[in-house]
Amino acid sequence: MRSGPLAGARRVTATVFAAQGAAVGAVSTTVPAVESHLRLSSLAMTALTIALTLAAGAGSFAGLAAVRRSGTVAVMRAAVLTAAVALLSVAWAPGRLAASAAYVLFGLALGAVDVSVNTRAATVERHYGRSILSSFYAAWSAAGVAAALLTAGVSRLGWPVEYVLTAHAALVALLALTVRPHVLPPTLSSSGDRPAPLEEGPAPLEEVLGRRVWARLVPFGVVLLVAYVVDSTVSAWSTVYLHQTLAASLAAAPLAYAAYQAGTVTGRASADLMVRRVGPVAVVRAAALLAAVALAALAAAPSWPYAVGAAGCAGLGVAALTPLCVAAAGRLRPGAPETVLARLNVFNYVGVLVGAGASGGLGATGHFRVAYAIPAALAMVLVTTARFFRTHGTRAAAGIDTAVSVLSSRPPHGRTP
């Protein structure tokens, strides 16, 4: 087992991923309780969710500037502490205006965490010399499961939402206090004869993408868009769906979110192995089909226990789509994968906004079942795009790690791992 600064840096990075996952889980699983506490309509809550997403986009650019000035570790610690403060502010907001400001602050903090922790993760991975990025994303999802279970547990005890969010804020703040800098040794250059720079230098001049590359990028962009429509629909609104439509208690409603995140942990852990065994085309088809069936089951669930199981299966399917999509897009221009993947982020932002906004709007009119049926149909369409993921040899699995690592060094795209 490794020890020393490198292992410490890995632990700290995983801790920040976990803090972010816990914070997102806290917000997602307390939506119905906050709605009731502040007497907000579903439409008003949808507007808040969209504002949070837009704020996260702005926070990513602000975080990038802060990283350049103060370094990744300082920004990670400050951003996670700010997220904890925002959770407390939501909990004890005296009115709707203050709560809205707190949600915006949370979004800004979330974006800053994204850009700083992903930058740090890419640096740590380079020092290890092998793919370890999936372990960071697994920490994110595992913390989301823990946050959902915490919400369910304290809600079952009859705690009001103020105390529920305070418990979450305390957990996130404690994780932030464990963040420490670790001076990493210089990495070796590709020739292995001398150390390479520790930090990345100025970005190279952006390569102009031709129309042919743009046309080939669209199928992968569509997959990513649908994946994030599904993700934001389940993450942001499954708790409300179980509570309002399926009559689940405030203690049981967060379990769909927990099951979904547990499914993503399993999917992320098994995707590379499945690609090596059966190839990316078969994996994409199976993942899209599983996501579609699971979402249809979620839409038609007769009671909340069925919905919890369906949400877990949806997470299992969607988890495999995103890394495969990123890897395939990165191979379109091997000499400039960062340029291609930066363009791919556009589809990500659109997916998050459409998923959170459209599903929230449908839910506000009492049609949450339709909100899950539509992504199910979209996921079925992805089965026809699987042929675009055809690769040669066994590089597909390695391509996942490489492309995700490149993407992780970019500003984030809407939300974490």
TrEMBL record:
This is MFS transporter. InterPro entries: MFS, MFS_dom, MFS_trans_sf, MFS_Transporter. It is a multi-pass membrane protein. Residues 9-394 form the Major facilitator superfamily (MFS) profile domain. SUPFAM superfamilies: MFS general substrate transporter. Keywords: Membrane, Transmembrane, Transmembrane helix. Its main location: membrane. Pfam families: MFS_1 (PF07690). The keyword Membrane applies. The chain crosses the membrane at residues 12-31, 43-67, 74-92, 98-117, 137-155, 161-179, 213-230, 242-260, 281-300, 306-329, 341-364, 370-389. It comes from the Bacteria. It is found in: Cell membrane. The lineage of its organism: Bacteria, Bacillati, Actinomycetota, Actinomycetes, Kitasatosporales.
